[in-house]
Design goal:
Length: 500
């Protein structure tokens, strides 16, 4: 429904949009309105209907019912080509770029202008430079996209949208893999787009970004549009309650802990060019946070402990016993698990059913005489699916069909079944909605209370401060400092250590 306080007509109106899939009502009378020159945050838990609504707008999915108005006139959006011609561009989290082509070639791919059968590389390059200048970023148009940073590839996507004459740009989790400096640059680009009258739909699970960049927020839940409000009229607490449908009294449900004796002890851990003489201990019942800037070596430490990479030097002890970890299999056998930063590439086999993903590190429990006992596997998975509230039709569902939050819960389930004593969480809530975040935080707290040792790697400082007992900070492959009492720490203290 259009904003009645606005004296101007909305650029886009989506009203009464329904979309069903077999057994699932993905959208129920969903609505969205968007004004030229504004940033509209589109929010909701995983599975709330955001992606389906955007795919309808982008012409990638046909709607069952509902109307789409652009400049007050009905539009069909029967295909992505229709959407492109109408001035709608979607920048997905996984970019639609060809890595072996240059930035220029990606921008104009399929739209090369020719004269007498020849196209002018010089003319295209000049046009690409003008687009980059308009965005305020310097990129060599002839640079191959595979050689560009994630932030630069994102700029190429924005330039491509502008070259198409886009009036509406949808950004799906645009900051998920960016550094803090790159996020600032992205925000500057978005402000320039606003000033040019371009409307931006900004999808993100990072609520602090919503309050910084968005003018209004539309919240979806269970396929329905719950409300659209001016961001200035919202608080973080009310926004979370709108998204999850219930009040969450405490965003970080960390219980006070009295950690016991050291369990995982790392001494002199090193790998050339990445980790330099790192030593620390994780105690029983403790959540130890390991943080730092991107590239500081946090993930590399986790991979060395887990045996995913070979260490050049250093020792690893568990409960006083020295471990010879040469592979992830060695780590798993010794009760150490890793929830990898990239769950899709390193935590799951997306083409396999969820049941088989769940049983992969637990085949010894479910096998007899070389055969997997499927009934036992399914019964065990059903227990974890119920306890973790994994939304999945059945154990035969491919893992790729699950939302990001449910994929993370699936990874958690397989490690909980293995009864690991040391759990390494690398960016445990990246790309996950606030409701699922709360559930994962609660699980981490409960695991620590049960005596498990938790090493939590995170770049989100509120998460670090809210969920840990103690904080270690890395800088350029080394530990730059320790904060013994996380409850008394500030973001400024952590950042001071992170920059060296």
């Amino acid at each position: 429904m259009a904003d009645p306080s606005s004296p101007r007509a909305p650029l886009l109106v989506m009203e009464g949009v329904d979309k069903s899939f077999p057994g699932v009502q993905a959208l129920k009378k969903a609505r969205l309105d968007l004004y030229a020159g504004e940033v509209l945050a589109l929010l909701g838990e995983n599975g709330a209907g955001k992606s389906t609504l955007i795919k309808v707008l982008a012409g990638a999915l046909p709607r069952d019912t509902g109307t789409l108005l652009l400049d007050g006139r009905p539009v069909a959006m029967a295909s992505p080509l229709d959407a492109r011609r109408a001035g709608v561009a979607v920048i997905y989290q996984e970019f639609n770029l060809i890595p072996t082509l240059s930035a220029r070639e990606n921008i104009f791919l399929g739209r090369e202008r020719t004269t007498a059968g020849f196209f002018s590389r010089r003319r295209e390059s000049a046009q690409a430079r003008l687009l980059f200048d308009r965005i305020g970023v310097r990129i060599d148009p002839e640079a191959l996209c595979r050689a560009l940073t994630i932030a630069q590839q994102q700029v190429v996507e924005i330039a491509k949208a502008l070259s198409l004459g886009a009036r509406i740009i949808v950004m799906d989790e645009p900051s998920a893999t960016l550094t803090s400096q790159e996020v600032e640059r992205l925000f500057a680009v978005i402000r320039d787009l606003k000033a040019a009258g371009i409307a931006v739909i900004y999808i993100s699970h990072r609520l602090e970004e919503v309050f910084r960049i968005a003018d209004r927020a539309t919240v979806m839940r269970d396929g329905e549009t719950i409300a659209t409000r001016a961001v200035r009229d919202l608080t973080r607490e009310t926004l979370i309650e709108m998204m999850v449908g219930r009040p969450i009294e405490k965003e970080f449900p960390k219980t006070a802990a009295t950690p016991g004796e050291p369990r995982l002890v790392v001494e002199g851990l090193s790998r050339a060019g990445a980790v330099r003489g790192v030593s620390f201990a994780v105690r029983r019942g403790e959540v130890l946070a390991l943080t730092g800037l991107v590239g500081s070596g946090r993930t590399e430490v986790a991979r060395l402990i887990f045996g995913a990479d070979r260490r050049d030097a250093g020792t690893i002890r568990l409960d006083g016993r020295r471990l010879d970890i040469r592979s992830p299999r060695d780590a798993i056998r010794n009760g150490i698990c890793l929830l990898a930063e990239d769950r899709k590439a390193q935590g799951l086999v997306l083409g396999l059913p969820v049941g088989e993903n769940f049983s992969l590190p637990n085949l010894g429990r479910f096998s007899k005489a070389g055969f997997v006992r499927r009934r036992r596997e399914r019964e065990a998975f059903a227990v974890h699916a119920r306890n973790l509230r994994i939304k999945v039709p059945n154990a035969d569902t491919p893992a790729r069909n699950l939302s990001g939050g449910n994929q993370q819960k699936l990874v958690l389930a397989k490690w909980l079944e293995s009864n690991s004593e040391v759990l390494i969480f690398d960016e445990p809530t990246r790309g996950i909605d606030v409701g699922t975040k709360y559930e994962i935080y609660l699980l981490i707290s409960n695991l620590a209370a049960a005596g498990k040792s938790i090493l939590m790697i995170s770049s989100e400082l509120p998460e670090v401060l809210g969920m840990s007992d103690r904080i270690l900070v890395m800088h350029e492959g080394r530990l730059s400092g320790e904060i013994a009492d996380a409850r008394a720490a500030t973001q400024e203290q952590v950042l001071a250590l992170a920059v060296g």
